[in-house]
Amino acid sequence: xxxxxxxxxxxxxxxxxxHRWCAADDMNRDLIKSRFVDHRLRESMQSVPxxxxxxxYTQWHNLAFAVSHEMALPTMILHYHEYSDDFENTxxxxxxxxxxxxxxxxxxxxxxxxxxxxxxxxxxxxxxxxLQEFASAETWEQxxxxxxxxxxxxxxxxxxxxS
Length: 163
Fold this sequence. Notes:
- The protein has 163 residues and is mainly alpha-helical.
- The protein has one domain.
- The protein has eight helices and two strands; from the N terminus they run ααααβααααβ.
- It has helices spanning 5-10, 15-26, 39-45, 51-70, 80-85, 87-97, 121-134, 137-143, and strands spanning 75-79, 158-162.
- Strands 1-2 form a two-stranded antiparallel ribbon.
- The radius of gyration is 18 Å and the shape is globular.
- The mean pLDDT is 83.
């Protein structure tokens, strides 16, 4: 939204802008009222900021696991933190999985911005409860070890590479 002063003034790249964006997006109740969301899940979503995004995030991973399993696709699961924890080994694992040869040194990895401070403890607990309720067993297996109280980001980032 560069160059759109009205947008960037309303939604600055900080906690305030993030919460304004979530509140605006949460006004769209189509998803929460849809046939895809039962009463129990709807109740769980009520206290999750940006619930539409958390729903889409979780559903994307649920469906990715289902398609990968149904089509018997070779799949490698990566967590975003693996890039910053051990970039070289992570890069080499990806290249091995894709059966590609490393060419050159590549560019330096710069980890992304973390947003854990944008959420209150109550919101993190609500997010965890929602994810646990809505995530498939395979998706939850990848999300369950994140610390939803402190330390780790409230929104885990899962990267999938399929050959």
